[in-house]
Amino acid sequence: MSYDEFLAGEPVIITAALTGGVHGKETTPHLPETPEEIGKAAAEAEAAGAAVVHVHARQPNGERTFATERFQEIDDAIRRRAEDVIIQHSTGGTGAPDADRHLPLRTDPAPEMASLDMGPLNRYDHLTSENTRGLVDSLHAEMVERGVKPELELFNDGHLNEAFGLLDRRDLANPVYGTLIFGPGTLTPPAPRNFLTAIDNLPAGAQFNTLGFGRHQLPFATMGLLFGGHVRVGLEDNVYYRQGELATSNAQLVERVVRIADELGRPVATPSQAREILGL
Amino acid sequence: MSCPFLDYRLEANERQFDEPRAYCEAAARFVQPMRADICNDRYDLAHDSDCEIYLEHAGAADENEGENKREPENGTENRSGDGDENRAGSGEDA
After folding, report:
1. What is the mean pLDDT of residues A180-189?
2. Region (Disordered): which ranges (chain B) (predicted)?
């Protein structure tokens, strides 16, 4: 994908990352945590222009859970309000046993998509989410078995090598779909030259999604739009609308990027168009 | 065993919640849900090896042996904190 795709007016898929698993309502009261809150947020995000919703599961007090049953409650709550939006489950989970990482794939029906973290990343000062190749392969195998499209989460340039390694080890359905992630810590440093290098280094024919954390969310979403990529926004990745002003909802962040896409002449993909682009 | 600095509170620091949430008495604030898993030694996590707040404050608590370790009013509550709120939206576990 490149500037040529932008010029060609290819539709952009907008993903809304609704809740996450790191921060919660202690950080912003606007973050949805319960299944009902997540279902409502998903419907609002879809109405604003999101074709995909990326979800994590939480206990009633906001703490993480990987239980299939909780993901099922969330999916059911989403489907009561949003029949068409593509549901993408997270399989991420710093510190969680590998067996638990498979649980989000086992809802009925299975999610259409799921994230696949492509390698290690550090958390806080003493933790690393290892994401070994063995775990990546076992998650991918279950995704194939259950008909789930993997979203390769590329936290840094080294994970691009890991994506090529995965392609060597396993058959990935076309198109390969990866999210380029920019921000602090283990993530790719958020500089435009790094973005351009990353898209140059993607596997041939891959579709890419663009994710900038915190204050980098809007500029990197805009770069994604300009270079023919797709974009992810939402309160999981950024709780502010602008400096010092909390975003009031996921939909607010989606609406903003839809406005920018419209100004740039980039059509926003419906869920049906997104399914066609991603080969779901 | 959970962290001795862990408490569950409905309100503190002018914040109120419907469900009791993890509160770190050493840092004197509610903590992120992911950090609460460390506080609870949940999954493969352990507060005495994985939490920088515990590691920083445990030594100070040991020096005051005989005092209640769960008591935050030991002069440490405002020393540093872990900066969780500054990492909000910094991702790293998408």
Report:
1. 96
2. 57-94
Counted domains in chain A: 1
| Residue B19 structure tokens | 């469900």
A138: exposed, middle or buried (C-beta count within 10 Å: 0-12, 13-18, 19+)? middle
Spatial distance between the Cα atoms of B63 and A161, rounded to a whole number of angstroms:
49
- Check A186 against B94: CB less than 8 A apart: no
Cβ separation of A26 and B31 shorter than 8 Å?
Answer: yes
Which position has the token pair 């399914």? A275
Q: What is the pLDDT of residue B61?
A: 58
For chain B, the residues whose C-beta falls within 8 A of a C-beta of chain A are 8, 15, 17, 19-22, 29-38, 42-45, 49-52, 55, 82, 84-85, 87-94
With contact defined as beta carbons under 8 Å apart, do A137 and A174 qualify?
no
What stretches of A7-77 adopt beta strand conformation (E)?
14-17, 52-55, 57-58, 64-65
Q: Quote the CA–CA distance of B93 and A91 in Å, as a whole number.
A: 10
Say whether pLDDT at B68 is over 90: no
Q: Do A121 and B93 touch (CB under 8 A)?
A: yes
Residues of chain B with C-beta less than 8 angstroms from the C-beta of A181: 91, 94
Decide if A187 and B84 are in contact by the 8 Å CB cutoff: no
Residue A167: its pLDDT value, please? 97
Identify the domain containing residue A274 by its residue range. Answer: 3-278
Q: For residue A175, say if its preceding peptide bond is cis, omega within 30 degrees of 0.
A: yes
- The predicted-structure confidence for A143-171, as pLDDT tens digits, reads as follows 999 999 999 999 999 999 999 999 999 99
In percent, the amount of chain B with pLDDT more than 70 equals 63
Confidence grade of residue B60 (pLDDT, cut at 50, 70, 90): low
Q: Tell me, what's the ipTM?
A: 0.90
B51 is in which domain, residue-wise? 1-63
Of A232, A196, A204, A201, the residue nearest A217 (C-alpha): A232
CATH of the domain at A34: 3.20.20.70
Mean pLDDT score across all residues of chain A: 96
Q: Does residue B87 belong to any structural domain of this protein?
A: no
CA distance A26 to B28: 13
